[in-house]
From TrEMBL:
It is found in: Cell membrane. It comes from Ktedonosporobacter rubrisoli. InterPro entries: AAA+_ATPase, ABC1_TM_dom, ABC1_TM_sf, ABC_transporter-like_ATP-bd, ABC_transporter-like_CS, P-loop_NTPase, Type_1_exporter. The lineage of its organism: Bacteria, Bacillati, Chloroflexota, Ktedonobacteria, Ktedonobacterales. Its main location: membrane. Residues 43-322 form the ABC transmembrane type-1 domain. This is ABC transporter ATP-binding protein. Keywords: ATP-binding, Cell membrane, Membrane, Nucleotide-binding, Transmembrane, Transmembrane helix, Transport.
Amino acid sequence: MYAATKRENMAHSKDRTDVRSTLSSSISLLKTYLKPQWLKVSLLAFLLCVSIGLEILGPQLLGQFINAIQGSMQILVRLALLFIALVIGNQLVTALASYISEDISWQATNEMRVDLVLHCLNLDMSFHKLHTPGELLERVDGDIAQLANFFSRFIFMVLARVVLMIGIVTLTIIADWRIGLLMLAFTLLMIILLHPLQSIAVPHFRAARQASADLASFLEERLSSREDICSLGAQPYVMLRFNQVARHLLHATRLSSVTGQFFSSSIEIILAMAVAAILTLGAYLLRSGQLSLGTIYATYAYTTLLTQSLYVITYQVDQLQSALASLQRLTELFRTSSAIVEGPGVPLPAGALPVSFADVSFGYTAEKPVLRNISFELPAGKTLGLLGRTGSGKTTLARLLMRAYEVQQGAIRLGGRDLREAALNELRSRIGVVTQDVQLFHASLRDNLTFFDSAIPDERLKEVIAELNLAQWYASLPAGLDTLLTGGGVSLSSGEAQLLAFARVFLRNPDIVILDEASSRLDPLTEKLIEGAIARLLAGRTGIVIAHHLETVQHVDTILILEDGTIGEYGERAKLAADPASRFSQLLQTGLSEVIV
Ligand SMILES: Nc1ncnc2c1ncn2[C@@H]1O[C@H](COP(=O)(O)OP(=O)(O)OP(=O)(O)O)[C@@H](O)[C@H]1O
């Protein structure tokens, strides 16, 4: 019993420590992004004070107007003009304040967006395997937008409203302590009741939002698989399920509106009671000559202002919960560090680099080793042809060379230096990779080639295109380097996309080239172009070619056949080809162009 209680206490204290540490890192995150804008934040605070002052002054002026209604016309006109000027002034100050608060919040959150995108891009591949792009999009866009609202609305609006409420109650107490205390009592009553009243409505409001999100994701999923649905004649089942989801949305929305209405009606009733009580007391004080009509009017106006402020605060406090949840998720993401540790920055030798694998083993999970005791040497400027069945670990070997994952045993050396000693940036700038899956951006050909680096001149791009023998293909493009790729623009065939990927790598002029050959067949013309491009790309560089066709390894120097993550065969291509007992020569003899080892 005691042990259980102790465990529970320990768990609670751990939770508390977690909450505290998340809260403190969330606060320091906020500070980081708000600090550079302290001048604007101070200006905003000043403007909000002015706006609060003007807001409080309005009912005072109208009260004076009412008191002076029997007096001189001149004073009345002056008061009326003053009131109009005050309203205009307040609107201008409010507009300026909302401009500054939006500016502060978007600048802060945009900086956070930039840092987060960079942070996510630098995280290792295993992180990205676990977190889908959709999830990261939700962090970078959804959560940060939530924070932007928090910055612009909550921090400034709620604080301003709280100060306004304190100002109103204080002023009313000064004008007449009895009415002031009555107002204070109603304000406290409202504060006490608002939360329970709201908690009746909020779950239904959330349920309605969830139901609406469910309907949207249901539609998105079914519409994206419309081909399968139509070809399998599954429309009736889809419609049946759609009706269920839509009906659920109807119920949830109806309940949400009714409870929402109950909430605002309750507030209206409390407000009516407050107004009635204040006016009755005011009438009594007026009759006994202790209060003017103008002060009663001002008190009435303040009561309405108070209720409005309470509405705003209640809504924003509810928003605070989601903002804090967003802030917590963002803090956690920022705290996630890459499994690949930056090397001490030992420089790699210049020029084509020799590659050496020494007893390398690796598995994505502890249970399943993918590569086991791989050792080979690839001299500088030579090319290795990597063959093996699908799933034998060829791509994994290339990933280890780029340090996308860390080897679990053994070492990989480039130019005699362990990969882990080089700076990641230098390492990756020295290796060029062309994968099967070429990613194109919805952008011009120029941007697709340069990765949006405007420092690379067009002449250099045209040189590379000519060097890779792509001039004819380039001439066929409607707008040259400005041709828009993908989407509404030109879509490339897989062969053309590969050629574009070659050009990208060629532009970066790396010292090691890794080519993951496309497994599908291309038309003979494109194949010729690709063959030529590969030869140019590999000239003077160390190369690893993951080959799916025997033609591709015709010109390589060494062959490595992977079998279930181990080396099945390794040696000079010419020697293996000449040895009738070798697997490679057997492969050549079968005459299969497609490699099935
Ligand atoms: N990111 C990953 N996480 C977990 N397992 C993976 C991952 N990538 C590959 N694997 C597994 O590792 C093994 C080797 O995969 P790899 O992609 O290296 O093979 P491959 O020889 O390149 O295959 P292919 O010729 O089809 O491209 C496979 O069993 C695969 O399922």
